[in-house]
Structure formats: structure tokens, C-alpha cells
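Quick one: C-alpha cells for this chain, please?
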Amino acid sequence: MSLCRHLLLLLILVATLGAQSARWEPSGGSLALNRSSELQLVFVDCDPQEEVKVPTVDGLVLSPAGQMSSTNIVNGRVTQSTILGFNVRPTRETTLTLPSFRVKTDKGAVTVPAATFSVSQAAAAGGSIPLDSVARSEFRVPVEVWRGEVFPIEYRLTALRRYLHQAASDLTWDPAPLVLEDWPQLSAENVLSGGEKQIVLRKASRAFAATPGTVNLAPGTQLINIVTGTSAFGFFTSPNLEQFAITTAPATVRVKPLPAGAPATFTGAVGDFELKSKVVPERAQVGEPVTWTLTASGTGNWPEITGLPSREVSTQFRAVQTQPKKNSGQGKLFDATLEEDVVLVPTAPGTYTFGPFEWTVFDPKAGEYRTIRTPAHTVTIVSATAQPGGGGPGAGQAPRASASAPPGLPAPVPGGALEAAVPARAPFAGRSWLLALGALPFVLVLPAWALLATARARRLDPRRPARAARLRALELCSSLSEQRAAPAALPLLADWQAAVIQALELPSAYPGAAALEAHPELRKCWLEAEACRFGRAASLPADWPERARAALEKLPPAAFAWSALAKPRSWWPAALLALAAVLPTTDLWAEDNHLAKGLAAYDRGDFVAAEAAWRTALEREPLLSSAHLNLSLALSQQAQWQEATAHATLAFLQAPDQPGTLRQLRYCLSQPAFTPQEVEPLIADTATAGLVRTFTPRGWQLAGLAAAAAVSVGIILLLLVRLGFAPKWMRIAAGSLALAGLLGLPIALYSWAHYGTYRDPRAVLVWRETSLFSVPTDADAEQRKASLEAGTVATAQRSFLSWTEIRFRNGDTGWVQTSEVLPVWRGDGSR
């Protein structure tokens, strides 16, 4: 008897093991060439535990198309299947075989048997019309072109209008070895051919071949949907569609090599080009830069053109080569403009000739080389004897005549001294503020966007129903603890199972217990619920509600955590810190009485004592603009015009809107002293100069940062409105704020740049005529020495004992006694 029992158990085990299988449906047959069909990979009583990787087959394009599950009950036996869908499209007319392969499942590894299909020519309209009679595609290209010649290329797909439903994809094509311009969008055109209405889908572009030889264009493929019939649903009908891949017919281009004997000035340019030459200025002084610009434009093989031939100039010039600038239109790869600048610094006077310049290109229309010539330019260089060092490092600006008072009017007199004692602030050093300007939108907008996107994701989270279903299932467990017997428990159990399915986000409406393999306790409760629902048990076990609740509580819900940064009140500390960093905090008037002493001495006419007091104040705080202005007043009362002009200039640069500052600077410039470089455009009676004088260089930097912040805040407010976190009326305010920032940003950048060298925190002003040395000592008689004019502006590089190294705008450097220069912003950029 025990032997029979063991044999029965063995038979049941073998039957169970044999129940798991996998197969293709259909397992064989025929496929149509270039037509999309569907194959299903069916797993019976097992689920794949890893990504199913179907072996690749040459001539068959296969891509996943979704997954589904099914449950069948036959004679009390439940069979569950997992079905993976695949879209297949054969690309060769042959016999294709999908080889067998093994897949790891939850019931062990199973083998998918091979499937063989024969491929035949596709046909449309139920097989009555060959596919190539319904639709065909082609590339239209010239038969013969030159190497590098830009030629047109056109793609056309022609289909019978009554069969074509729509294009299902864009053109798929590898243009190599051609260099191709971007394709435009497809355009459609209806034509009539042989009494049949046709539709032509086309798009045209341009290309060129970089190497000679015969180029066989790779076939291009486009998917289209073909109407094969109609289906009726009552009064409504819909078309039956099949998807086909239309492949272009073979196309060939013969690429000819360029003729031999190219001139030396040929750099590989093929096409139709123009060349222009410009020299600015045509009259300059020794040390002043002269810019020679060559501009090439036209249509050709621009991706292969890296630059123009080199230019020849006199050895009396020092050349500074800049980076070429190539600009092309939107989406235009073969239409461009190339601009090359060469900055030439003359070292000796004379008359020099630039050019003529020659550039050879190949003209594909004429089939020959063509040399483009630009006319020669004559440049006159004169001696700069009046400049610092006679063309040395300080050269570059002619002396200016002193401005005198208009005839018939009394000469201006110094104004009153100021009591204000708030120090100025130096511009931000280097390009750090520009980096901050560029980073500000990312610092403000991106975190705000991330927070808003998180909030929106929480509100529109697709897993939100799953979390709600989990809570509902827990509530039903409490209800079922009171009513565990049928029939009162049946509707509650049905709701509980539906909530569990939604909480687990199962794809099937009723997946069965096999889908709960990963949750054994929940699976046991599920089976007990089914037994109660379908009559195999009169009621639930007594401990069922507690076990079901415990199993559900082991399923952690996906929850979102709000961050404190999302609350607006968290932004105020950072805003207050930023405001504190911007506002000046030093008030020397309260700390020291030197300003008061100087003011008292100035009022009683003791200008020497006033000068001494204000010099002491400046030693403590070099950026005290009111002290610079007062010192200039005291010095001008003593006719010390050079130093008075220097301090008036510093007062103006540190506080251009300070009362009396502009008047004092103009008064000093009317005296026989000097005119500081780069100052006249700032004090002119023009609207532009008046705008620039509104703020200091640092003020315009902060204005630029504020404008960028306004743009960022405006974008954040627009995001709030767009994502539903703010009312729609706020859109106008947000747009206005962003627009104000966009208008203010270029104004701030332009005004900041208008200050020239003075916007550098290391700027220094030479306040009296002195000498410039090549090394920091005046003991070496053989070193190079040049005269340095009063009013020269430069930037301080480093200090050595009582010497300061300065750099001029043309890049030259030299050493000067520290006492001969006045730092505009202290020189170290520390403030």
C-alpha cells in the first residue's frame, strides 16, 4: 500500500514539473518582408526572474511590445500564463529561425524551443497588390560630384493615397561617409499619376563627401501604416491598419578627386566664397594696436575649413593672433562666415603695406581653382614722442589740452568740504562676479524647480492610489474581525482583495495567489479569503484579521518627505545675510575725529592743517571718497593741481553721485595739471555718461546680480503659476519682474564695462610724471627706463620693497616707485 502511495506522489511530482513551459506563439509559419508582425512568448505556470534576452537573428528586427498575464480554469485545474509580446519585422527574403534558449524562472530554468518562419514578399490590400506598388521610397542625388562639393540630396516616399494612412516613424538612415546637413520636417504633396491619386512625402538637405570614390548610399527605412480594410461598430467604422517598413532603392554617387596642381594658397575650401579685408586704424602712433581683419563667407565645405592662409607683415610689428570666429545660420552647416583678426603693435614709425591677400578655393561649378584677392592697405605709423617712454609700456594715448573756462565767465572755485564718512567698496575681483552672475539662475531656479516638482509629483503621484488602497485594506481587516462568516463577510472580502491588488500594483484585475509569491503571509490570507468566498470554507479563521493586518503592515508605503527648505520662511535668513554682506558697515566719522578736524581747519582757512587731517583719515581708510574729495579741495586751494586732480579722480570713481564730486573734478581738469586716462567719457554731459555715473563699478556689478536674481525669481513665480501653486493673476507680476531683469542686465553690464581699467580692483593712477623701470631698482644704469606721464592708468601686479609692478592695457609691464601711484580701490581687492 505504501508503494502505491509513493508511486502516486511520484506521478504527481512529474506532472507538476512538466507543467512549467515556455513557447512561441505562433511557433512557425510565414512572415511578410518588411511588415511588422507580433510574436508572443508564453510562459505557462512560471514567471521569468530576469530580463528575457531573445537571441539576435540576422535579417530580423525584434523589439519588446509589452507584457500581460492570463488565468485559465479547465476542469478545476488553474493554469496561469505570463505573455511577453514582441514586434518582429523581417528585412530579408529568406528562412529565419529563432534559436532555442533558456530562461530563468521562479520555477527553475525552462527552455524556449526554436521557431522557424519563411519570409515572402509583402503585399497590401489583403494580398492582392504588391507592397512596392502601394509605396516606394528613394534618394535623389547627382550622379557625379567633386570631392568636398556641397550637393543637394532629396528623400521621397511615394504612396497610393487610398492606402496610406500615415507615416509611423521618421526616416532612419546612416549618411556615412557623407557629411549631411540636418533634415527638415517631412512635407506632403498630392499628385495625380496614371489616373491614381498619390501622396509624396519628401524632405531635402545638402551633403558633401570628404574622400573621392564611389559612394553607395546606405538604405533608408521609414515605417508607414497601410489601410487593409475597415471594421464596423454600429454606425461607426474604423480602418484596419498594418505596419510596413519602406526601404529606399539603391543609390550611388561618384565622387571625383580635385584636379592636381593646386596653388600653395589652397587650404581645402570647395564652394562659392567671398573674402573681405579691413585694417583699423589706418593711421596710428607707435605702440597703438592696429587690427587687420579678414572675413570669408559663402557656401562650401565649412566643416573642413579650419582657417585662412597665414599673412605676412613687416618685422616692425609685434603680432597678437586671436581665435578665429566662425558663425553659421540656424541649421545651416554649409553656409557660414569666418572672421580672423590679427592685432599688430608697431614698434617704429613709417608707412607700411598690408596685403594684398590671396586665398585659393576650388569652384565646383567651373571645375577649376579660383584665387580671391583683396586690395592692399596702407598704414601710417607716426612717432609717439609725447607718450610715456616714447612708445614704451605707457604708450597709447595722446596728450590732451587742458580745458579752460569759457571766455567772459569767471573761473570756477573749489566748493565746500563734505562731512559724509561712509567708505566706498572695491569692485569684485577678476571674473568671480561674472561667474556668480551666471550661476545665480541655477542657484535660485533649479532648487525652486526641484521643490515644486517634488510637491507636484506628490500631488500627482501615480502610486498614490496604491497607498490609499493599502490603508483601505487595513480598515477592512478591522471590519472583518467582527464579521468573519459568510455571507456577511463576502462583500468585505471582495473589497479587501481588490484593495490588495491595487496596493501591490498588480497588472491583472484578478491575478490569483501566484502573484503573491513574494509575500507568503499575504498569500496564505488570500487563499483563505478565496476559500470563504467560493464556498470551500464557511468562515474565516479566528486569527485571520490579525494575520492579514500584520502582512499588510510589512508592505511599506512610498511616502514623500517635505523639506524645511520648501517653506518660504526658511529663505529669509539667507536674504538677510546677503543684505548684510552688501550694505557698508563702517562709519569712520563715529570712530575718528580726523574728518571733523579737517573740516574745522578748512572752514577757518587753514588748508595745510585740513590737508594733514584728511591725509590721516585716508591712511586709515583709503576708500573714504569724501576724504579724497576734501583733500582735493585743500590741495587745490594751495595750487597743488596734479595731486588735487588725482584725489578728485579717486573721489569721483569711488562715489560718482557724491555731491560736489563731479564739479570738483571738472574744476581740477580746467587747471594746468593733467587729464587722467579713460575719465573724459565718464564726465561728459551725455545721457550715457549720466547713466554710468549712477553707480560705481561695484554698484553696477550688484545691479547686474540683482537683475539676474529678478529674472530667476520671475521664472520661479511663473513655475508656481504653471504648476498650480499660485493664482493665475500672479503671471503678470512674474513676467514683469523677469522682463525688468532682462532689461536691466545688459544696462548693468554695459555701464560696468564703461569704466574701463577703473573697474579692476587693482587699478592705480600715476599722479605725477615719473619714470618706469624694467627692474625694481634705480641703481642699474644699463636697465631700460622710460618716461611715465601723469594721468596714466594701469593695474598693480605685485610689490617689492618701495616698488610696485604695474601692467598696461597693451600687456606691457614695468616697475614704478609706490609713492608715485595712487590705488583707486586699495589695489588688493580685499574689500
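The chain has a mean pLDDT of 78.
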